[in-house]
Design a protein that fits this description.
The complex is a heterodimer of chains A (381) and B (291).
Chain A lengths: L4 H17 L9 E7 L6 H20 L8 E7 L4 H15 L4 E2 L4 H14 L3 E3 L4 H5 L5 E3 L4 H14 L5 E6 L2 H16 L6 E5 L7 H9 L4 E5 L2 H13 L6 E4 L5 H4 L10 E5 L9 H14 L5 H20 L3 H9 L4 E2 L4 E2 L10 E7 L6 E8 L2
Parallel strand pairs in A: 1-2, 1-3, 3-4, 4-5, 6-7, 6-8, 8-9, 9-10
Antiparallel strand pairs in A: 10-13, 11-12, 13-14
Helix pairs in contact in A: 2-12, 3-4, 6-7, 12-13
Chain B lengths: L1 H31 L6 H18 L4 H27 L4 H23 L14 E4 L2 E4 H23 L1 H11 L1 H6 L4 H27 L6 H15 L4 H21 L5 H15 L14
Antiparallel strand pairs in B: 1-2
The chains are: A alpha/beta (381), B mainly alpha (291).
Amino acid sequence: MITTRRGILSLAAGVAAGAWARPSFAAGEPIAIGAAIPTTGPLSLSGKQYFNTLTMAEEDINKSGGINGRPIKFVIEDTGTSNSTAVSAFVKLVQDTKPPFVFLSSYSTQNLATAPEVVKAGIPVMYAGGAVAVSASSNGWMFRIRPTDSLAAHGMAQFAKILKATKPGIMYIQNDFGQGGAQAAAKQLEAAGVTPVGSEAYGQNDKDYSAQLLRLREKGADVILTFVYPADGALLLRQIKALGLKTPVIASSASFLPASVQLLSPADLVNVWGVIDTFVDASVGGRMADFVTRYKAKFGQDGDAYGLAYYDGALILAEGLRKVGTDPKALRDWIASQKAWDGIGQTFSFDQEGNGVHGVAVVKAKPGTKTLELVERLKLG
Amino acid sequence: MADLIQLLTNGLALGSIYALTAIGFVIVYSATGVVNFAAGQFVMVGTFAGVATLVNAGWPMPVGYIGALVVMALFGALFYLIVYLPLRASPIVTVIIGTVAIGITIQNMALLTFGSWPFPVPSPFDGMMIDLGGTVISAHAIAVVIATGVLILLLWLLMHRTAIGIAMRAVAQDVKVARLMGLRVQWLLAFTWILAAVMAGIAGLMLGPMWFADVNMGDPIALKAFAATVIGGFGSLPGAIAGGFFVGLAEVLGASYVSSAYKDLIAFGVMILFLLFRPQGIFGEKIQDRG
């Protein structure tokens, strides 16, 4: 125990020096921000990424001084797998926490169900689902931080042309996301003078796709465009190889999430291209390398583009809160005014419908490996 | 023709899994009168027992498979002790709701333990394809069908040619009389749960390489296996087998020759028709009151 005057003075000096050397941590009453995201059930496969990146963003924002000295705190409610749970989660956040801003799920069906409540609550939200219908019902309060499905479909159709495909087939999950993507891709392909030879659907709980794939083979598809969720996207690629199909595949972003790629062998990824949001890889360098490295160190798994969208969204929000405070309308107007916000994964430019992302990237696995490489970036919006 | 062979193989492999899960439904229902709505989660636990032994522990395949089945036997015994025994005197609805609740609990425990990312599960036939003049068939799918056939044969031998099997059938027919005949009913009921869990474990180990190990994989299996059980006849082992293969084939062939969007309508539509016009199923007896 230190009892001498010199000892006490040394200790006080040490504490003072330590406080000076530490980064400026935020203090005071936290600003509570809502996040209604899926943390249980099948959708938690991607929801866990948002949970992780929002946790990471909270720490980073607070370490760098918070919101003008006040810490930020993300209050998370689980949207589960159903639309009604998603609506309840949002309403609970609004009533209990009264946040100036909420992050929503990346699942369009949940966001479509929640949209009327968002408008009623009159607070801005960010979401990551791709269905075009969501922005149409947002009334200016909803901001999308991932590409729209039609944008991704546009990219896939454009890349099918680059591959010189003349008989594309489409395979999609039977929900708003899959149907919307498949229709948008078919429209883009037809506009380019290429008519899809077939369009096959599968249910969200289906695990065998052989019938649909063999039908596309029978129709002579020379490329297959897939609109999938993560686990079924991986299973689909594996079954394509198991059926001996050599047809090239252009897959939507979920097939190339780390959660999906870890399920596959290098052979499963031969002749497969992915149209993804952004190339999340340390080789990009700069802030991306820092994000990728820190995420892996913190959570023990690779971060993905969906999670990164929420991290970038949190940083946009933090800057908005610092500049205009917690008034929901002022915050909404500030976010809507951002035209070239430089995030880690994207440069966000919000249009009149609240869509912030206007480009996609095409990736492919390096031969004989599961390491992804960037093929090209497509600026579409 | 090439397509048909591939579809039949996949349909039979899928049907095998449904059949094994449906057998689990039937042997528990016959012996205890309980419709185990956690049956799908039993299969999921079986797959993750394989993940634990084969992937996480890195045991060689034969040892890993045996280890996973020992885990499943213990799981069946625990389920009997913790879920069935405390609830056995309760109304049957309570027991059924109990199995639903424990199913959800098991699923969330798996989520907490293994996380939300699916796992690839190895198979002894990984990457092996059989090429029949341009028709490529997965060796694993063929192995699943053969293994299911062998298991069904072994189960028949157990039930009809061993003392324990005959005693189980006696309990299934009339618990009171079985007890009066001096049979150790509680031990036999425990063995029934263990057998159901091991069957589900085998289904899970065979299913893992086909579907990946996913904590949410139990529900779709349970739904299809339930349809298979209703179609085949609740309480009938041949019914469970026939129903399982019917649902598997209907799913794959229906998607190919009818519509991929409405393929589930075939299996569930047939199930509804059976419930309306032949509730005892194909092989079930008309009167199934237990003694």
